[in-house]
Amino acid sequence: MTDNGAPKVNYAPGLEHLMVPIDSIKPHPRNAKLHDIDEISGSIEDFSFADVVVVQKSSGYVIAGHGRLLSLQNLGASEVPALFVDLNDEDAGRFRLRHNASHDAGGYDKALLASVLQEYRDSERGLEATGYTDVALDDLLEDLTRAELDAESAGLGPGGDAEEEDLSMVWGVIISTTDEEQQVALLERFQAEGLNCRAVMSA
After folding, report:
1. Which run of H or E residues covers position 59?
2. Strand, coil or helix: 84
3. pLDDT for 163 beyond 60
4. For residue 125, how many other CB atoms are within 10 A of its CB?
5. C-alpha gyration radius of the chain
6. Residue 119 and residue 92: Cα distance in Å, rounded?
7. Which helix (H) or strand (E) holds 20?
8. Helical pair 37-47 and 66-74, crossing angle rounded to 10 deg
9. From CA 166, how far away is CA 54, in angstroms rounded?
10. CB atoms within 10 A of CB 19
11. Where do the DSSP E strands lie in 28-161?
12. How many angstroms separate the CA atoms of 49 and 137, rounded?
């Protein structure tokens, strides 16, 4: 904690020569990107600040790193590592928009993400400081299981390609059970009735 009671911000080594007073730069008033300041602030507290804020040299407006700047302000920091670039107003605006758009354009390999998160959940610290919760991981696993069942019901292979040229419409039902005993009982009952079904378990 600092003298004024604010959390002490730790900065990664190597950023010292980039430090400027935090009040010397300012968020751009036309930046439309929204940020989860509490989440970013929590990450800084857990792992230190290991990034820079990109600033237009002529105006002092932030081009990239609004969330980082606002989070440092939220934590009561007095300095921020800044990289100043010499861009005119139009190019700075285009840079700002492109930077935000590039973050929105990406996605996730959901199966890989689930695998990584499961490894962390099984560790001593669980999902602490990952930005994910057990509920979020369970929802992700459920979505993956449902997508796998839908693909198999439609006659699609792992890559989503049709295994046969002539596909007929298939209707399926997903039933959640409370335990393995109930799952086995229902499976045996449905198979005895001539239904095509199989057991699936998600962690």
Report:
1. none
2. strand
3. no
4. 9
5. 25
6. 41
7. strand 19-21
8. 70
9. 55
10. 13
11. 53-56, 62-64, 79-85
12. 27
